[in-house]
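Weekly puzzle thread! Below is a chain. First person to post its structure in token form gets bragging rights.
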Amino acid sequence: MNHHRPQRIFLTGATGYIGGRLAPRLLDAGHQVTCLVRDARKLVERPWSHHANLRIIEGNVVHTDWLAEQMAGHDAAYYLVHSMVATGGKYAEHDRKLAESFTRASDMAELRRIIYLGGLGELGTGLSQHLRSRREVEDILAAGAVPLTSFRAAMIIGSGSASFEILRYLVDRLPVMITPRWVRTESQPIGIADTLHYLVRCLDVPETTGQTLEIGGPTVHTYIDLMQIMAKELGLMRRIILPVPVLTPRLSSHWIGLVTPVSSRLARPLAEGLRNRVVVTNDLTDQLMPHEPLSAAEAIRRAVRKTTLADVETRWSAAGVIPGDPDWAGGSTLVDRREIEITAGPTEVFTAVCRVGGGHGYYAADILWKIRGWMDQLVGGPGLRRGRRHPENVEYGETLDFWRVIDVQHDKRLALFAEMKLPGEAGLEFTLDPISETTTRLTMTARFRPRGLPGLAYWYAVLPLHHIVFSGMLHGMKRAAEELSSQPLQPKTSSS
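Winning reply:
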């Protein structure tokens, strides 16, 4: 019988896809959690960020001595750091450096154990660079003095995960698919709920310390199977899938980048990894932590439902370094500033502002935004495919189509940084100034720092469209805010 004992947990990767869901579950289980993040603003909007048993610290895993000081006094640490899209594709080298620093710091802090989530797949000459890098990180962590509990998983199915998004968009948009041969590769996907169950449960099972635990759903599937399951759960006809031998991972990643919200840069290591058979090879996990995982169909069904209801807890696109509020001071920054007075309070105006992008659109000239999105996709940018996590709420660091939220101050300011392909740096900022109790001034500022003559040519080419696009957006926000302001307050009803 295993007994639950609250522990002191050190969590890295809390702003990422897995870590952002693991933190609240650790808190719910009664543990004291310290989250190490690069920027605490990313967690401000999370409902669990003010929990009494939570401590948030800002820093970087690479600073070994400082990290050891922060880790001291903790029982266990989760290592969920992953830099798959590091600059120049050197993610393996960067991951190695971070893992070595974390291992040294863990030894110095004398932790009881490290818990790591890596990838399934047998080592061999055909193992992808991505999976090889995950295994190398595991080896580095295991080489330290602190015992390692290493989980290995195949595709993780959950609302907002990169794998789920790729699968959903390919199936939704392509009734007929010409695919690489890897669609016949076998995989044993696992639902996000089951992944989190094992990650939390292992804390109460001392026998998992020092073990390598393979986790997966109840059934092995080919990727063709998963595509057809996805089609069924989306209410679509079976897809016609034609595997051909000529599509390389590089070509596949560009195809994924064109059709899905996941950029070709992120899709490349994922596509390479899909060549490898990734299945569970033993039942050790089930012996130590008996559990009935969801089937692939049920995991996909849940993820589709949560996506439809805009109940997506974390998304792949919010992870990673934020470019930050660009330093617009000095230089040849070009500015387009417009303002409008709105007969509504700051709360209603801010709500209207935060609806921009995603399924709601841009209030005006949506066809122009769509054309700009298509143009961006053709040159390898994100376009409008990334959409948004929630139809109204925004968090620091998340994406709204090809924008990144770099500042959000409720009822005061929303700042966006353009991640589309541009000959320069662009930003869009909305600021709110109350004029009276019932009137708010909304100012929209577009800034562009051109790179050379192509940048200047771009700015002046699109300048005539600003009046249509930006003025239309402001007037649309005005209409939406005033409509919200005119709605009567809904009376509160008691629930049984």
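Puzzle host: Confirmed. Bonus trivia for everyone else. Residues 322-331, 491-496 have pLDDT under 50 and may be disordered.
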